[in-house]
């Protein structure tokens, strides 16, 4: 069977006009996009505004301590960026990640992560955190506040580089201040020292003493465990019946031992098949929704370019709160008109072909 190619009977200028119309249509609906508020805009805005209030209070606390903010390392002037090194610093930390978490708009991201995890009003969530990301800790509390979710936390009172790693301004100092000012309710049930074994390993004895003093001076219970498994089990027992678990940072009892890699973001289905060595792994194995807040740049990248996010914007004034949408009316009209034209041209070409075949 031979196939015979038959050239179109349409003049070239017609094809050019159709191409120009298609390009014009594409240009039209691309340039008639409009900015609209995202779903739950008001809720996300409220969380961000609450975070702003909390950040203001941290700045007030620093002012009372007469500690100026170094804008070179803290460009958003939050007072939440600590030292590179200190006696209570337990591990390395990336300054860029710490700066990302000092943008109060991060609270809007947390609200969306809560929604993806199925967290709703009235739910209780367990939190495992330390002082590595104090800005993110505040954003999580703000999301809980506006969504009417009850947070219960266990704090490891250490920090990686650039976090709340000054013994006079640990996370527990910050939490106590925010409770006193009635911005948040008390969240931490009890505290540990932190470190590679959650009991001070990797920190000098002087650093351990400073961490312990910070826990006690701020009125929190200190717990120490001879065996690491007892630490993990005590945390799980303390949380009780929770809807979801939120891990912030790399505390070994909460996140897992060194060398473990668990994906950031929301994990809604049982994923952990190995030996359970941390609270996060336990809830993953149980099939509880978990939110793993590590690799901060990866989380932010799902919503906005990290570099742009580091610059900071007013609440409600970036892509986390607004999205570009096409006009359905214009898009539909363009597709309809071009579709009718193409259908007519095909019919004409086919009719001409049948006439030629009939001769």
Cα radius of gyration in angstroms = 28 Å
Number of helices: 12
Beta-strand fraction estimate: 5-15%
Largest sheet: 6 strands, mixed
Number of structural domains: 2
Helix share bin: 40-55%
Oligomer description: single chain
Helix and strand run = HEHHHEHEHEHHEEHEHHEH
Across the major sheet, the strand order is: 4-3-2-5-7-6
What does the overall shape look like? Answer: elongated
**Unreliably modeled segments:** none
How far is the first residue's CA from the last residue's CA? 21 Å
Judged by helices, strands and strand pairing, the structural class is alpha/beta
Q: How many beta-strand runs? A: 8
Mean of all residue-level pLDDT scores: 87
Explain this structure.
There is one protein chain. The protein is an alpha/beta fold and 359 residues long. It folds into two domains: 25-35 and 324-358; 41-311, no CATH class. It is built from twelve helices and eight strands. It has helices at residues 12-30, 41-64, 95-100, 106-116, 134-147, 171-180, 205-217, 228-239, 279-286, 296-301, 306-311, 328-358; strands at residues 34-37, 124-130, 150-156, 188-192, 244-248, 265-267, 290-293, 322-325. A six-stranded mixed β-sheet has the order 4-3-2-5-7-6, sandwiched between helices. A two-stranded antiparallel ribbon has the order 1-8. Helix 1 (12-30) packs antiparallel against helix 12 and helix 2 (41-64) crosses helix 5. The longest helix is centred in the last third of the chain and has 31 residues, at 328-358. The model has no long low-confidence stretch (mean pLDDT 87).
